Amino acid sequence: MKKSGINEKEYPSGKTLKTCALKTVKVGEKLGEGGQGAVYRVSYDGKPKALKWYFSGRISSPKKFYENLENNIKKGAPNAAFLWPLDITEPGAGAVNSGTFGYIMDLRPEGYKDFSRFLLAKEKFASLTALTNTALQIVEAFRELHNSGYSYQDLNDGNFFVNPKTGDVLICDNDNVAEYGKNLGIAGKCRYIAPEIVLGKALPSVHTDKFSLAVVLFLLLMYNHPLEGKKAFPPCMTEALERKIYGEEPVFIFDSEDDSNAPLPEINNNAIKRWPLYPAYIREKFCEAFSKKALGDPSFRVIEKDWLKVFIRLRSEIYKCDICGNVFFADPVKSTYCPDCRTEHLFQRHIELPKWDIAVHKRTRLYACHTELDSDDFKTLTAEITVNESGGFELKNLSKKTWLVIDAKGKQVSRGMNKTVPMEKGTQIVFGNVTAAIL
């Protein structure tokens, strides 16, 4: 008996399996199905987990694929964002050669939604902070992946689960991840693969991952594809035209020197509206990522460290208008006008740091990336603004370090954890190896 071209016997529902770690897996309900196989809820050594089970004939080199999974399980996940393979079912007689096996991973927690639902406006972020957290976590995860010696090889909108309230990210479909120089026969998903893969000039790699990452980030912020302007919607789309749009002659929809693929209001309305809402440094970074130079030469692609820098800055510039309540990105030093009510906002104080300027207002927060030299840690909170009894702003030390505070007259005082520093002009704060000035 057949179902969707797959033999019913290949479905392990109700079966008990053994893994290479000698654990018992009791297979429960099916959670979803794709081209390579299906995902099931299972009891793994008595604990709730997920099993991804492969169908025979759906993997080009099953033995190579199985060995790669074994290797990835042995090395472990690059960071906690990855729903990484934890264990794999026993090979069994002929099972590996036929491609019928599976691996164990954690279940998706409650509250996480498919990233593709955000692109279809079926889910919305609770805040701009949540959206920027998603960007930061995606970039951080792939930086850790690449630093661990892997390339993802099939990065696309279907790889992410996102918590709309917090912006926390989980990355799934990690079975195609391979070490540098290895390829499992996966080219990637159309619209996300780099031009050199479209043209058959390269296989998936760290360099092609960087292109795919830039596409995902643009989609996250603009809700449109960076290469799909007026060129991408002819009366009749053909394979030859797809090759031209994504491979031979890709053009960024906001390319300032080439408007041949400019955005169209009826197609790119999201991008047209959202593009000017982001600060110039974000727009410039996307122009760099999708420049003719970067599209044609992988060595010019934006690296994760540079993405982290601009998104850390972006999150620190989120501000709520105290007149109309609109949330937007406000310059910490210069005047910014609220996009909704047009009220001018000019902060009375800002914190000048070696890498950035941070506006002082009642929602200001500093993280390790601000107060520690060469840190990219955007999660560890080290300080926040509080309001004293007279309505003045003070910076509260939330770190375990003792700060050295030097006021405008040169007087020095130490401030430990939970102590505060008045935000008086001319004050300097030595966080350790980073010094800030209050201006």
Automatic annotation (TrEMBL):
Chain ranges of the Protein kinase domain: 25-329
Molecular-function annotations in GO: ATP binding; protein kinase activity
Gene3D superfamilies noted in UniProt: Transferase(Phosphotransferase) domain 1 (1.10.510.10)
Domain of life according to the entry: Bacteria
Pfam families: Pkinase
Protein name per Swiss-Prot or TrEMBL: Protein kinase domain-containing protein
Provenance organism: Treponema primitia (strain ATCC BAA-887 / DSM 12427 / ZAS-2)
Lineage: Bacteria, Pseudomonadati, Spirochaetota, Spirochaetia, Spirochaetales
